[in-house]
Amino acid sequence: MTPTTSPQPEPVAWRKSSHSGDEGACVEMAVLPGAVAVRDSKDPGGPTLRFTPAAWASFADAPPRP
Predict the structure, then answer these.
(1) pLDDT digit of tens for each residue in the chain (66 aa)?
(2) 54 part of a folded domain
(3) Among 8, 12, 31, 36, which one is most buried in terms of CB atoms within 10 A?
(4) Which range marks the domain in which residue 50 is found?
(5) Contact present, 49 and 4 (Cβ < 8 Å)
(6) Is residue 40 situated within a structural domain?
(7) Number of domain units in the chain
């Protein structure tokens, strides 16, 4: 799974991780046509990582590491 970095995509609906606390170490994701974008919530204007839907599903479905 090799993500690509890119400038911010067009306006999309970003969602914050449900595992994010109030500590500021949060990630947000957005579903794009043919990709899933991920960004640092502390830098919403910064770069994003883009994954294929299959790569994102594999990551999201993986069991947590002990």
Answers:
(1) 566 666 555 668 899 877 666 666 788 999 999 999 999 888 888 899 999 999 999 988 989 887
(2) yes
(3) 36
(4) 4-12+26-60
(5) yes
(6) yes
(7) 1
